[in-house]
Every structure is written in C-alpha cells, then in structure tokens.
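In response to reviewer comment 3 from the previous cycle, which asked for concrete evidence that the modeling workflow produces usable outputs, we include below a single protein chain processed end to end. The sequence was submitted unchanged, and the resulting structure tokens are shown without manual editing.
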Amino acid sequence: MPDPKPSGAVGETRRSADFPFPTSTGSIAAEWNPPDGNGPYPMATPRVCVLRAPGTNCDVETAYAFDACGGAAERIHLFRLLENPGLLDTFQVLCIPGGFSYGDDIGAGVIFSSQLQGQLSETIGSFLSGDKLVLGICNGFQVLLKAGILPGGGEAWPPLWIRDADAVPDATLTWNNNGKYTARWVRLQVTSSRNVFLKGIDQVDLPIAHAEGRLVPRDQSVVDEWFQRDQVGLCYRMRPDDGDSVPQDGSPPAASDPLLPEPHNPNGSYANIAGLGDPSGRVLGLMPHPERFLHATQHPRWTRLGLEGQGDGMTLFQNAVDYFA
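The workflow returned the following structure tokens.
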C-alpha cells in the first residue's frame, strides 16, 4: 500500500513493514480500517503512535522495534497531532522516543511537554483513561515527567501542579552529577511486578545517552510512595567492565538504597532509579534505550558473552504488543 499523502504542513510516515500480515492460512481473517485512511490492519495488531517533534532522532529505530514485534507503528509529527488531536484515538500505544526535542534549548523535554499539557491536555487525558499504553524513552521520559503524565498517570491527570499555582511537581529530571553528556552501557534491575512493558524481565543491559537523566524527587516521601505503589520500574545495578554478572546482596532495590558510584549509576539518579511507571502499570518512562539493543550483536561484548538472537531491549516492545493479543 502506498504511503498516504501528508495533510497540512507536516506529514506522517507509515510504518516500516509492509501490509498485510498473513495468518496461517495466508490471508487476514479479520480487518480494521481506521478513520484516518490507513490500514487495513489485522484485528489483533495494535497501532503504535511514535510521536516525534523537531529534534527527535530515535523515532525510526523505535518504530522498527514495534514493527518487528508485530505492531503497526507510525511516526507521527507533533504538529500533525496539534492539527488533528482526534488522530491519537486511532492508536493503542503512544511512544515518545529519544532525541533532543526542540534542541533541549530551555531544558530537556520542556517545550514538548508544555504542548501535551496545554493544547493536547484533553486528548492525553482521554488516552490515559483507556486501556492503552504509553512509553517514553530518554527524552520521551523527560517529556512524560515534565508534562505530568508521570508519575500519576491517568488517575492524576491533569496533575495538581498545573491546576494549583502553589503545588510543586513530585520530581524532575535534571543534569547528570558529572555535569556532562554521558553515553555508556548500564545494568538494570526490574523492580516493578506490575508494569506491562517489564513483564518477564529480571535484569537487562541497555545503553544510556543523555545529559539530563538524574531523577530528583521533591522529598523522600515521594520515593517511598513510588516503591510502595510498585511504580519504580528499573534501577541501576552494579555492572563490571566485561559485562559478566556481579553478585548483589540479594535484596531488591529500595527507596533507602545509597547511590551507586559511576559508572554503575551514570547520572546520580535518586535511589538509583532508571525507570518509572504510573500506578496502573500501563505507562513507563526510562532513561536507557531499549531500541538500541534489539539484536545480540549490538551488545559491545556479544562475542565474549556468546550472545545470539535478539537483544534484551526487544522484550519491552514485545510485551507492549502482546498486551493486546
């Protein structure tokens, strides 16, 4: 099927895989034709909106990851959604990928987040209230947190600090402790048993690449509540240079954990938190990049470790697609 013609000043890009997806009989048993003219799609195929803005640069590989797992990903420009907010209703997954939206000129994710909490507030609220998923990767995590989609999700949208001038956000993501852009591989421990994206994962190695990845809460009580409500998705753990496993003390990550030193906690994030979810488990923001470890050969020590097949990052995207199966 040819790409649709763009509407307005900014167009949208179709998913990278071809349609249709054959069933075991070689044809689609049931189809859905969304009102935006794209499709047809197999009924069990979730549509994924990979929402990009000026400066986003990880949207192609993120869309590829969802496609490779059986989803139907489309890269939609933010301006297109501002023109037609109802477009988001035709998707089951919203993903904000990594990059430097608007150049991070006044802070990472600040402008992008203001558009979600402003012009698109009602649209975002409707999406969060449905049985749908939201993923924010790196800059996308910064956007979700600064928009107020995290940590409260749909139950706290719009967040109190938008409605009340005296209220203060629960947390922010700010400059790394080392004061510079940092790119390296890290080891992560899954903490949440509820989050959809993290199902079946224990530990995972993923790359990070950011300058403003340090999670800073308003106070200790905020972090205590996150752990109590099973919202902390991932925490940094000790990782040796050779990539082999490191014996831990056996206890799960906790709000009172001391900071791990660099390079294990690459930014100084409070309680070593690398990813955060909402209370429903259907929203996840994380600083590491799962879309950069889709194949075993992307790991820097894949030969030494004897890695084969898919990379650990693929599981997050597969879990999202499988949620709608």
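The two ends are 24 Å apart (CA to CA). We consider this sufficient to address the reviewer's concern, and the full set will be provided in the supplementary archive.
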